[in-house]
Amino acid sequence: MSKVVLITGASQGIGACIAETFAKKGYNVAINCRSEKEQENGGNQVAEKCRANGVEAECFIADVSSFEQCGKLVKAVTERFGGLDVLVNNAGITRDGLLAMMSEEQFDSVIAVNLKGVFNMMHFASKVMMRARSGRIVNISSVAGLYGNKGQINYSASKAGVAGMTMTAAKELGPRGITVNAVAPGIIETAMTDAMPEKVKQAAMEGIALGRLGQPQDVANAVAFLASDEASYITGQILVVDGGMIM
Ligand code: NAP
Question: Which of 51, 77, 86, 118 would give a disulfide with 136, using CB separation of 3.0 to 4.6 Å?
Fold first, then answer.
């Protein structure tokens, strides 16, 4: 029977690429998006592209910042596909601003999606995986969470928190045969980074050993590896995928 992967925030960008990468590897794919609009404008098309690989795929609506909706999402996916082998916590937002200028709403909204959303999803998915005594969780952190980034105090706090939760969950779930790892991307070309001025991108590239920005596929390949049988003895790790930006 095909394995089942659930990817949050997968209607576009890195999440959509992760979904298609798993479909190419023969997984049945559950795509999560936040709203009906996202489902119509992205999620359903991603599911269709996945199905073109001969696997089953469907888009499920849930806001990961809602504990209740995450519970319903995991239940719906498990019932539809008969299990859950891999969870990829990819959904994330930015609301940038300097420390002294940042509003409470900017801080809280990023923490709610990027940090609490990962807790919510791991909470419910781990129960299914513990019963199966196997599973893989891959969380998307960021180099901003490991090294900080000016203008992103909310985002870097959330992504550092994801790294901490990854290690704690790895310790708790390891004895049940579940691995928990994180991927920390550098600068990847998606809608999230489209807003960066060209000058800033050029300056950033000069500090990247490989001399280019990352592509969603670079991240998806790392996620797929951490979910694979070849990575069965790797847990609690934060794998940086940044082209050699920070060393
Ligand atoms: P993106 O294109 O903005 O995609 C993020 C996805 O998350 C969107 O589909 C978004 O849907 C979804 N999402 C947001 N809030 C959600 C919620 N409450 N519930 C469910 N889904 C939600 O960004 P990306 O660049 O692909 O980023 C993917 C992940 O990689 C994020 O966690 C990001 O922090 C991380 N990352 C990205 C970079 C980079 O350079 N791009 C670097 C490091 C880490 P909506 O459109 O409905 O908001």
Answer: 86
